[in-house]
Amino acid sequence: MTFLKSVTTAAFAAAMLATTSLSAFADNVVIGRANEPSAIDPQFSRTGNNQMTADNMFETLLFTDANLQMHPHLATEWKNIDPLTWEISLRKDVTFHDGSPFTADDVVFSIERTDKVPNSPAPFTDMVSTVAKTEKIDDHTIRVTTKRPNPALMEQIGRVFLVSKKAAENASLEDFNSGKAAIGTGPYKFVEWKPAESLKLVAYDGYWGEKPDYDNVEFRFIANDAARTAALLSGSVDLIDAVSPADVARLEGEKSIKVYPIESGRLVYLALSMRDDTAPGVVDAGGKPIEPNPFRDARVRKAISNMIDRNLMVDRILNGSGVASAQIVPSVLGGYVKDLQPTKPDADEAKKLLTEAGFPEGFGITLYSSNNRFPGDGDIAQAMGQMLARGGLKVNGVQTQPYNVYAAAATKGEYGAYIFSLGASTPNSEGSLRSLLQTYRKDAGTGGFNRMRYSNAEFDAMLNSAMEEFDHETRMKKLEDATKIAMEDQAIVPLYFQKIYWASRDGLDFTPNLSERTIAQDVRKQK
Known about the structure:
Blueprint: H1 9-16, E1 28-33, H2 48-57, E2 62-64, E3 70-72, E4 75-82, E5 85-90, H3 104-113, E6 131-138, E7 141-146, H4 153-157, H5 165-168, H6 173-178, E8 188-194, E9 198-203, E10 216-221, H7 225-234, E11 239-240, H8 245-252, E12 257-272, H9 298-306, H10 310-317, E13 322-324, H11 347-356, E14 364-370, H12 377-390, E15 394-401, H13 403-411, E16 417-423, H14 430-436, H15 457-467, H16 472-488, E17 493-505, E18 508-510, E19 523-525
Parallel strand pairs: 1-10, 1-11, 14-15, 14-16
Antiparallel strand pairs: 2-3, 4-5, 5-7, 6-7, 8-9, 9-10, 11-17, 12-16, 12-17, 13-17, 18-19
Helix pairs in contact: 1-7, 9-11, 15-16
């Protein structure tokens, strides 16, 4: 079955009626984004929609480039005094948007605040989980003491968004959303956020780094793929992200449009909840919840994996815009296991495993997914439902929701079987393994994205060993071993890595990146 999306007449008309583009003026750019943030507070939610919003206004100790490699940024250098102690030097020529100086006080405050933001649907806890103490040495030097040896400390705290202590210390979420507390050191300053509509920014004249090409930026949040494409074609926006694979060929055929493809580090996967004795939506023939939870049995998880035709999903549903996967990071990152490759669907093996697990006739299941987080997510869910039905399960429904609603519900454990994604954000697999598969412990700050509540002591032990290994080659080998343990246990069901696209009109260039971010600093005037 092939799902195709096209620019409808209604969507095109809607785009034509949009507010006149700021790009009518030379130093202004309008960007059509598929999803919007849930808040402006950069530490509120570690989700892509929030982080790419924060990246415009707030900065981090390290800068992550288009290939996920990390470089000095607001931290200029660092050293190990001993295995538990790090000394970090900070950039001196930096000011916040309100003109106040950036100092060690702001960094100490930001690191300590990271895991204390109330009601976070996706906390940054794992970035600071090994931090025992952060101290100011002088205005531009801090000392971090860790709970255990942690060679990846800078990869972790280096991604913490830094806020102004003065502006954020007593600020509420609404203070950030209104702009009152949205005071960063980034290239752009907050102007106005209209939820479900737009975010407006203005270049910060006092920015310490490379000056952005555009003075004024407007992000318009256009969830519908066809409407986003229509807005680009009509000229009401200058750049769009999350281009539907079905629209790529058409846009490539337009002389005034440029398309930017990249194979991303975002893994789309099927999560099977193991957090409770029963799993939401998993029922017997009579419609009653099954206890004990079938998903706690690795044989059931493996059976479901054997029902899925990943290549068909990529080729037919996504028009080739993906790379089938059997593990958590793509081949360009450290910790990738070369001999761990996706297998073809095997209905006989799936039936055998279900029978061994005590479900020869299968069981009922409801599948959940977002419908606007990434191109084709709703279509993938429908196709997945058909595959599971053919594999021997009774699919009672496929339910999709807008991502902002969906992500919060998934974090609360409201779904049994659900499609989610995780974008790699570090040079190797450690960050993804830690956040997605390490045993969830709120007090220890581990497993921040482990919504399934998967737990495997052998995996945890190998991952912990890798996390304390300072020799690079040995560390990468241990990360590979940890991945093998988790995938042999079918901790999650990997589906594919996205191939994603942006598209722009003539007059500007865009730098695509593995992290999928769509930020104004990556938009440049065409030379």
